[in-house]
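Give me structure tokens for this 385-residue protein.
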Amino acid sequence: MKNLILGYERGRNKWETIHRALLDIGQEADVVVEDFDKIEGPYDRIITVAESLLPIQAELEKKWGLSNLSIESANILSDKKLMDDFCISIGLESLIPDSVIPKSPSDLDIFKDRPFIIKPTIGSGTKQQRSFDYVTFNNQEDFLQTVDDSFFEDNNRGYDQTSFNNRTSYYMAQEQLPIEADLYAPYYYGKNNILWVKSNIAVNKIDEYSYETRCSSWMSIPTDAVPIDIKAEAQMFIDAITDELQLKDMFFSGPDYYKWGSNIKLIDANPRLGQGLQIINIIHDYTIIPKILSGKPFSIKNHFLWKISTLKPGRIKSISDTSHLSEHLARTNRKIKPGMIIPEFQHTQMDGFRQALYIKGTNESDMLKTYETVNAQLQDCIEYY
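Here you go.
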């Protein structure tokens, strides 16, 4: 089978993972990260590792007579607001947070007395292009204190996202789900559940009007450790999305399920390979994803804790050798150098200083103990001004 992998250069860790897995099972694979309009085919299968490129996958599949992803489905899956609205239209409204694309101040009336997060409809992660990207505001009035009319004028026109396939994006205001909620996320290939993870949410107060919420850790857990109602809602969701959008074999990372009391809501269903599955693949000697792609059975014997380090804030004077910790340092970490400033608030997707630790184990308590040990050893390597 001849495969085409679509991605961006900045997403090297994702497309390299898929490329390696395909070669391991004896299949051909080409990676394209630019000049998407110059792709020559045909190919037997397309795997896209960045959701903003799904419309290109759909166009190519139509051209080559493949039937995994329609153009309409690609547009829905790659746009947060379209995805929310689609889910509501097929009867999943109880799981979907309230949201709106605000084009005038009155559009935010639904958030008069409750918090909401501002996020672009196109894009992934929590990358900040503007000061209010992925920021939560206490309520409508507090948001209006921090922006002027130009926000609404710009949001009527939309923004061309050059780093996301030149897609036109808008800002959506979405209900901020409770920070005290329990958070679980599944990984899928097609309708088949591969893995579950749980997360801890950290909060950083920005000012009197706003704050940011980010995940400070992810831990893979056995399926039987996931609440029964979460598993039931998650399977109903992936079955409905797959059937209604007529999807075949696609990776899904998420959605993130928030559970508080008897309430369950979801955000961020990412139709691509996710970090958690990549880690599970690594700690099982790169055997999990090849088996998934070839339809062979697999078992998860080890788990992981992916948690941001809790280093003392301050400016680094010197850093000693950390090679003895290399197996626990995330590949996507920034190299620690003298002069760097360690901030008080860190999270797993930040662009600045970030030291995430990978811990492999079989149970939660042992992984947490190992994390504390490794974090202390890394701290001992750092001298401050």
